Amino acid sequence: MKLSKFITDNIEEILAEWEAFAKTLLPAAADMSAADLRDDAKEILCAIALDLETDQTAREQTKKSKGATQPLEGGAAELHGALRQASGFTLAQLVAEYRALRASVLRLWQEQSAPCSPEVIDDLMRFNESVDQSLAASIEKYSQHAQNTRDTFLAILGHDLRTPLQNVSLAAEYLAKPGVQQAGLDRTSTRLRLSAARMTAMIHDLIEYSRAQLGDKMRLVHRRHNFKELAQAALLDANAAYPECPFELEASGDLSVSVDGARVHQMLTNLLTNAAQSRDKAYSVTLTVAGEPDQLVVRVKNRGPVIAAEFFEAIFNPLVQLTNLADDSSRPATSLGLGLHIARTIAVAHCGDISVTSTQKNGTVFTVRLPRDQRNIS
């Protein structure tokens, strides 16, 4: 059977193997929909099959081997590369998908094809050329999006640091003036604490993100804690960063838990500050902590612009800005987009998980579930 016909006749079986492999590449992929896991794979396969059916001269084959030809029809490979970058896949994982696709197609085809013949060898050569061409297009678009993301990230970082640094500079000038009154000192002290809190949060998130990018596993130091005390400490830090936002704490059940207190504090602070930043100013942010027999359930709730369901996974990816997902001029225009990513990293490191729901009626709720005992994790 011609390889092009085999691909089109067996495309569902090939896609099922693609989907199963993609699910193993990211911790969060287990929760991705089949459509997101397949992500243009059908269009890529159809383009490859069409390419195999297209007459090709020796000169065209040479140009293709040197990457001097146009991408396959439809642009599916380029779109796939861009979406995989946005979904948090690494470049190595993108390449692994194509490697697995190549292996799956050839293995399944071998089971049905005739013994080697000139036609079979030609099909194999053409197929590998097409896969390589599709992969090159995906990599190019992935790299372009990654570079754009880095450039945007640096621009946002400079913007976000400029405001607290300017506050520090103004405070220093004010304190240098003679005859400063106590009321002025109090206001200046508050401004300095607020600026320091915001810069500290950014630095903590940057450190964690950099460690993850370098492949360094998050190290945890587990101790027995009263989770309510961790929650109260996180509320103080969030309030320091957003003093105009009212925060509420609701705690119930047995809140004794074995966790890394510093990491959990960072996770809670990130969730609270994210909620404060994106809330409707008429409402408070609520932190609810409930102790269940085998786990702790933490919920951070605010009311503000509804997050569409298709963004529920994307907002946990690094450098994705939640503020871009709704048109609300009253909200900050920039954010490093690392807070939710770090929060999920910490939850997963504790063998827990984090999810989000968002409706006009019930507001936006981030829910973290942590196993009660984590003492054996290093």
Set down the secondary structure blueprint.
Layout: H1 3-9, H2 11-22, H3 34-38, H4 41-53, H5 58-65, H6 76-86, H7 91-110, H8 118-175, H9 182-213, E1 223-226, H10 227-241, E2 247-252, E3 256-259, H11 261-278, E4 285-291, E5 295-302, H12 339-349, E6 353-359, E7 363-371
Parallel strand pairs: 2-4
Antiparallel strand pairs: 1-3, 4-5, 5-7, 6-7
How would you describe what is shown here?
The protein folds into three domains: 3-149, Globin-like (Orthogonal Bundle), CATH 1.10.490; 151-213; 223-371, Heat Shock Protein 90 (2-Layer Sandwich), CATH 3.30.565.10. 56% of the residues lie in helices and 12% in strands. The chain is elongated. The termini are far apart. The longest helix is centred in the middle third of the chain and has 58 residues, at 118-175. Helix 7 packs antiparallel against helix 8. It has helices at residues 3-9, 11-22, 34-38, 41-53, 58-65, 76-86, 91-110, 118-175, 182-213, 227-241, 261-278, 339-349, and strands at residues 223-226, 247-252, 256-259, 285-291, 295-302, 353-359, 363-371. The chain has a five-stranded mixed β-sheet with strand order 2-4-5-7-6. It is an alpha+beta fold and 378 residues long. The protein has twelve helices and seven strands.
